[in-house]
Specification:
Blueprint: H1 23-28, H2 32-47
């Protein structure tokens, strides 16, 4: 599904953050889970999604603190 979604980079609309908008009411009507899924979808559309991309390896190392 993500492969077919593209961002229209030629369209640009400027507005003030103080303008009245129904967007805030729309997003407040959604559950936190729905908002997170929408945010993740937008992130994938903007930055791309590649499940085979190399990721940072997580390593846990336990060290002993020296006294003194």
């Amino acid at each position: 599904m993500i492969k077919c979604l593209k961002v229209q980079k030629k369209a640009f609309v400027a507005g003030s953050v103080f303008d009245d908008s129904d967007e805030k009411a729309y997003w407040l009507s959604k559950t936190p889970g729905q908002r997170l899924r929408a945010a993740e979808l937008m992130r994938q559309i903007i930055y791309g999604y590649n499940p085979s991309a190399k990721r940072l390896q997580r390593v846990l190392e336990i060290t002993q603190r020296s006294s003194g």
